[in-house]
Specification:
A 4-stranded antiparallel β-sheet has the order 2-4-5-6, with helices on both faces. A two-stranded antiparallel sheet has the order 1-3. It has 2 domains: 1-36; 44-148, no CATH class. The chain starts with a helix and ends in a 10-residue tail after the last helix. By secondary structure, the chain is an alpha+beta fold. Residues 1-42 have low confidence and may be disordered. It has 4 helices and 6 strands.
Length: 150
């Protein structure tokens, strides 16, 4: 009789645990499935402000021989972000410390966002030539494409 009571108790505990999981599932998702973040296109996109562009140029410029002569091609930025850290991918035409990378270079930076605006940026990766594909591949992990920069 004692083992039957423990079996009922264990079943009850499992049922309560599973019902708590279902109750805490994000709206619109089935229990046991993880919610995936909305793609940037679904949230909306915007142009960066001149101040935000300068923050990114300061981070990218540290990796260029002459940052003042660089020509930046800007991609859109999410209009709304749920996170305070957002990855950003675009391209720059500039002189690299590595001659094979001179010219068009793809980059990814991690931006810090406060109040919906970029307040800082940290270089993740920059590469030109045939290695620009490495940056494009890394950006694709975040549903970004530096080749869409204009």
């Amino acid at each position: 009789m004692k083992s039957a009571g423990l079996s009922v108790l264990a079943t009850l505990a499992t049922a309560v645990t599973l019902s708590a999981c279902a109750a805490n599932a994000p709206a619109g998702s089935a229990p046991g499935t993880a919610a995936s973040p909305a793609p940037a296109a679904a949230i909306g996109q915007r142009d960066l402000t001149p101040a935000e562009k300068q923050v990114i140029m300061d981070a990218v410029g540290l990796n260029l021989v002459n940052p003042k002569t660089a020509r930046y091609h800007w991609a859109k930025f999410p209009a709304m972000t749920a996170e305070d850290s957002v990855n950003y991918c675009a391209t720059v035409d500039g002189k690299s410390p590595y001659p094979a990378y001179n010219g068009r270079q793809a980059y990814i930076v991690e931006t810090k966002v406060l109040g919906g605006r970029v307040i800082s940026a940290t270089m993740g990766l920059i590469a030109g030539g045939k290695d620009a594909a490495l940056v494009t591949k890394m950006c694709a992990k975040y549903d970004l494409d530096p080749n869409k920069a204009m």
